[in-house]
Amino acid sequence: MTTSINISPTTMTAGTHLLVYYAVDRVGNIHNIKQLQVVKQIDFATLPVTSYYGINNNDRILTTKKYPNNYPNSNPPSVPFPNQLPVATRFQDIKDMNLNVIRINMYWEGYRWYKSQGQARIFLDRLKEIADTADSLGLGILYNVMHQWNISSVLYASSTKTNRGAGFPEEALQPLGLVRLPDSYISNQPIDGSSDVEKAPVNIFWKNFVNNYNITIGGVTKPIWQHIWDDYFKDVVMTTKDRLSTIGYELMNEPFGGTSNVTATHFDGMGRYYSYISQKIRELTSTKKIFFAELLTFNFSGVGGKGKGSARTIPKDANGNIINGIVFTMNRYGQEGFTSNTIATFDEIQPVMYSYNIPIAITEWNNQSQSNIEITLTGMKNYLQEMKSRGYGWFFFNYDPNFPWTIKDSNYNDKWNSSRTITFRQMLYDVKKQVYS
Question: Where's the Glycoside hydrolase family domain (predicted)?
Fold first, then answer.
């Protein structure tokens, strides 16, 4: 009796499939004999970056912020998306869009909040659920462990004081004098009311961050990089490192965003942070990819251009050798395609990274904002054709119900302009099929 069957699914996509056995009797009748689930598994860390076609996803647990936008009228924490569908439903929807990878954005301050309440398992169990679901569906996951936007929810993101930042816990800002609640500082405005840009929280924070200043968490004082790893990053890696769906880990999102007067010292310092965390990751896994990001400042000097400056941030081991399995990332937004300035940046950075055999991924792309041009089929095609021609992997921003210009699950309206007859989801599906057919 045959108890197994050997198939070679060279054209089968990753994930779970139904294998149906049929038999034909002597008079030609077809009988359904047996049904089996067949799982084709892929180690996504081994795939070339050029084969990553994906999207960002903000999960409500992993993107918890401590301070709500209208704090103190609302008590902590700020947990977004009350109607967000389950992980399995969202991921199946993304797979049905013919995408194969997801960038999961996570906030250290969210994990800190759960830990402070003795509920770290809530955060880690969601990571396990994401990994389980991705394994079963044949999707790859990039864990964007240190996602930040305007540093922390302890700061306002703009002078309107209607939104707060996200990412770092308040313990990281306290030694720098940046915590002033409830009337918080604004991330890009000098804290002393002067016109000195160096007194803005974005400059104070990032220029101290690269010097690895001391912070205190849970009564323990040590350098911030060590706290990031010991308090948070290590737990994420330990929870996900053995999964085939795990592509790897992103070390920081948009460092130095909004800063001024950035110098070679700051590029070098960010390189030391990248090297420190990369070495820690390599102690736990030798195969998962490590993604390190461009310094998102357009006000810098003394590095010989953005390409040479970015080369100073390449993660290295203790002997000064380049860490294996690294990927350089950029986030870029345009208007119906990448801007001429972005193309010039690509042209400057790409040959430098490729000279070190370091692939490139665009980890966020879309039109600039909801106040500008709503992305169209033509615009999406322009983005994808440019990235394909350069061999970049990519992650569209975003699968997230919070913003009107993003792809949403079925609990939210996926149309910004009510007169439009096609959803962003369908647009991306159609254009990706055209460009990568």
Answer: 86-402
Any residues with CB less than 8 A from the CB of 245 and at least 6 apart, and which? 44, 131, 134, 135, 138, 139, 140, 141
Long-range contacts of 419-422 (CB under 8 A, 24+ apart): 420/374, 422/377
User: Is residue 37 a part of any domain in this protein?
Assistant: no
Gap between the Cα atoms of 373 and 249, Å rounded: 32
pTM of the model: 0.92
How do 220-223 and 214-217 pair as beta strands?
A: antiparallel
In a domain, 190, yes or no: yes
β-sheet bridge partners, residue 31? 23
Chain segment 219-253, per-residue pLDDT in tens: 999 999 999 999 999 999 999 999 999 999 999 99
Q: Is the preceding peptide bond at 401 cis, omega within 30 degrees of 0?
A: no
Per-residue confidence band for 1, with pLDDT thresholds at 50, 70 and 90: very low
The mean pLDDT value for 98-126 works out to 98
pLDDT digits 0-9 by tens, 338-353: 999 999 999 999 999 9
Give the residue, 420 or 397, on which the prediction is more confident. Answer: 397
How many CA within 13 A on the CB side of residue 304? Answer: 8
CA–CA dist 3, 19 (Å, integer): 14
If you search the block for the tokens 């929807």, which residue do you land on?
Answer: 93
Residue 283 lies in a domain: yes
Q: Name the average pLDDT for the chain.
A: 92
Please tell me the distance from the alpha carbon of residue 44 to that of residue 38, in angstroms, as a whole number.
Answer: 18
Q: Tell me whether residue 255 is in a domain.
A: yes
Q: Where are any strands of DSSP class E within 356-427?
A: 360-367, 393-399
Residues in the chain: 437
The number of domains in the chain is 1
Q: How far apart (Å, rounded) are the C-alpha atoms in residues 111 and 419?
A: 40
Which of 84-88, 211-215, 364-368 is least confident?
364-368
Q: Is 173 in contact with 151 (CB distance < 8 Å)?
A: yes
Write the CATH number for 101: 3.20.20.80
State phi, psi for 430 to the nearest 5 degrees: -65, -45
CA angle at 112 for the pair 296 and 228, rounded to the nearest 5°: 50
Contact residues for 95 (Cβ-Cβ < 8 A; gap 6+): 15, 137, 138, 139
Two tokens, residue 164: 């707060």
What is the average per-residue pLDDT within 161-184?
A: 98
Which domain range does residue 220 map to? Answer: 43-435
pLDDT for residue 324 is more than 60: yes
